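Appendix B, record 7
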Amino acid sequence: MEELNQFEQMILTALGSVHESYYQTTYQNIHAFRNALQHRRGRIVEGNFYRYGERVFCYELYHQLRILIDNAKQTNQNFLNGAILQGEVEKMQIIELIETLGLHPMDGEYAPDFLMHTPGNAVSHPFVIEVKCEHDITGAKIFADLKKINQFITQYNYQRGVFITTNAQPNYIADKILELNDNILRLDGRDRIKVVCKLNQNEEPQIWQL
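Structure tokens (predicted):
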């Protein structure tokens, strides 16, 4: 339990170490090409265009997390039972293999943004992490990721799940969670899932336990 809590704190520390330029890119004074940007992934505020890139953010978050994990393993080589951090690993739904590992099939072959696990076996599956960087993320997208995380917990024996959202206002995310309450209550692993809202590098994260 102590190491699980330690890794959760690592996630928060890593989020604070990701430079603001990885959260979003600002294009200033875009009046001349405002129309061309209307349908791009981002938002226009007071003459500036703010663009976000989930992959760019996740690559840097991976880097910052690896630094912390490697440091932890300097003093404890068996940190989280030897689990390693991997990104976008697709979990195959081969029934015979799943049953051999003592797991249960999920709805599909999912590839979460991050898995902290021991690949190829079910010895240690401490964390599954999903990330969304949209400032106006929909409730449907939030619940899709929460449902995916829930399946990793209930079907693949992952111990905890974290859903991270950046660039969105905390009160906006809080409202979405409230709107999704009835659906969230149907997630059997919800008591092991946390939502972390980190608006930008400098703002303190807001955290909800489902």
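Remarks on this record: Residues 2-209 form one domain. Residues 133 and 166 are 5 Å apart (CA to CA).
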